[in-house]
Design goal:
The structure is a homotetramer of 139-residue chains. Chain A is α+β, with helices and mostly antiparallel strands. Helices cover 26% and strands 36% of the residues of chain A. The first copy, chain A, is built from 3 helices and 6 strands, in the order H-H-E-E-H-E-E-E-E. The first copy, chain A, has a 6-stranded antiparallel β-sheet, covered by helices on one side. In chain A, a hairpin with a 3-residue loop joins strand 1 (25-30) and strand 2 (34-39). The first copy, chain A, is globular. The two termini of chain A are 20 Å apart. Chains in contact: A-B, A-C, A-D, B-C, B-D, C-D.
Amino acid sequence: MLRMDIPALERFLADNFPQAEALGFQMTALDEEHIALSLTTSAAHLRPGGTVSGPVMMTMADTAAYLIILAHLGPVALAVTTNLNIHFVRKPAPGPLHVTARLLKLGKRIAVAEVRLGGEQADALCAHATVTYSIPPQR
Amino acid sequence: MLRMDIPALERFLADNFPQAEALGFQMTALDEEHIALSLTTSAAHLRPGGTVSGPVMMTMADTAAYLIILAHLGPVALAVTTNLNIHFVRKPAPGPLHVTARLLKLGKRIAVAEVRLGGEQADALCAHATVTYSIPPQR
Amino acid sequence: MLRMDIPALERFLADNFPQAEALGFQMTALDEEHIALSLTTSAAHLRPGGTVSGPVMMTMADTAAYLIILAHLGPVALAVTTNLNIHFVRKPAPGPLHVTARLLKLGKRIAVAEVRLGGEQADALCAHATVTYSIPPQR
Amino acid sequence: MLRMDIPALERFLADNFPQAEALGFQMTALDEEHIALSLTTSAAHLRPGGTVSGPVMMTMADTAAYLIILAHLGPVALAVTTNLNIHFVRKPAPGPLHVTARLLKLGKRIAVAEVRLGGEQADALCAHATVTYSIPPQR
C-alpha cells in the first residue's frame, strides 16, 4: 500500500528538496514495486562531450531510491542514505535519461533499492546502483 | 553467441575449480542473458539456525557471475574478480538456494554481472550482488 | 571500552561459529580501534596457483568486521551482515594473510568496518573491504 | 613519481572540468600516496539543516580519486569512473569538508582509490568511499 502518489511526492520535493527539484526530472510511473523518473538533460548536467555526468547519475540514483521509499513510508519519514554503490557501465547517449528504482527490501530499519539508469532503448543500461537507506524508529 | 554450454561449463569447473564443484550446486538454465544455479543446501553450508551462511552466498554470487562470463568468453579466458558488492536482505529459508546472474556489461576489459539469490518463492530475495571481473587482454 | 578480549572472542567463536574457527586464523591484536587476524594458509584455502581464494578473503573480511564489533558490543549481540563490498587489488603472495579491521562507525543500529587484507609487506595490500552490520535493538 | 603537481591539476580542471572547479574546493596537499582537498561549504552545497548534501560528498569523492590518479598518469589520460561505493557514516558538521584520497591500486587497466571525507576533527569521519577508474590503453 503506497502512502503517497506522484503529485504528493512532487509537493514534498518542492517543499523540502528544492535542489532535487532543480535537477528537472519528471516522475513518470509509480506502483508498489517501482518508480520511474525521466531526466531531460540540459547543459547543466553534461560533461564535455554531451553526456550526463557521473554526479548527476549518482544524484538521480539516490533520489529515485528515496522517492520509492518515501512513497511507502509517507511524508513523516526522515530516511537517510547510508550507502550508495554505483557501476557505470556505458556512456549515456544524448537524450533523456530514464531511471527506475525497485525495492529489494523494505524493513523496519533498513530499505534497499536497486536503480537502473539508461537511455531510450531497453538494452541501453548506463549505470546500475544499489542504495541503502536507514529508516528512523517510529515515534 | 555463447561459447560454452552447461556440460562444457561443468567440465571446466571439474577440471579447474574442484572447490567450486564441491559446493554441490547444479546449473539449471543458461542463455545469452543469464545463468541459473541451484544449491541444495547441506550441513556444510549452514549457520547455526539452519540458514545458508553469508560466505556460501558470496561464493555462489561470485561463481554465478564467473560462469555467465565464461560462457561468453570461452575456456581460454582467465577472468579475475576485481569487486564484489553484496547486500543481504533476508535470511534464507531452509531448502534450495536459487541463484541467477545476469550480465550488466560485457566489455573488452571489464564485465559486470548482477546476481540474485533467493528461495523457492519469486519474492523471496535473500541477497543481491554485483560482481565485476577484469578480462585479460586477448592473446 | 571493549567488552571482550581475545580469549573471550576465541571462546565465543568456538562455541558459536565452528566454521569460522575451522578457517584456522589467529587473533594477533585488539584494541578499541582495530583487530588484527592472521591466517596461515593451508591447502584448503588455495586456488590453483597457490594463492588464497576470493571466498576465503571475503570470509576473513566478514569475520574480522564481526569480531571488532562483537568486542565492543559483547557476546549477547546478534549482529548480522547487511552489506559487504570488497575490492581485490593484488594476488596474494604465498604465506600468511594478515587482516586488519577498523571501525568507521559504531552506531546504535549500524556498524561499518573497513578491512585490509595483505601479505607480510606493509605495501602488499591484496584486498580492501567495507562491511556493514545491523545491530539488533537492545532488549 | 608524480607527473602533475597541484598547479598543473588546477589548470587541467579549469580547462576540462569547469563544473568540478565550480564546486569551489582547494587542493591542500599532494604526494605519491594521497591528495587532500578542502571544500569551503557554501549555500549551494547544503541540505536543509546546513550540512553538506550527499551528492556533493559523492562528487567530491569521485573528484579526489580522479585527481590522485591524474597526478600519476598525467594530463593525456582519459580515465573514467567505473564504480563508486560510498558509506555515509555521520552527518557533516558545519564548516569546511576535508577530503583525502589514497591509492589502493594503480594498475595498467584499473585504479582504485579510497576516500575519506570529514570535518576538522581527526575522528569526525562523515563518509568513506572506494572509487574505481578504468584506465585507457596507452597509445
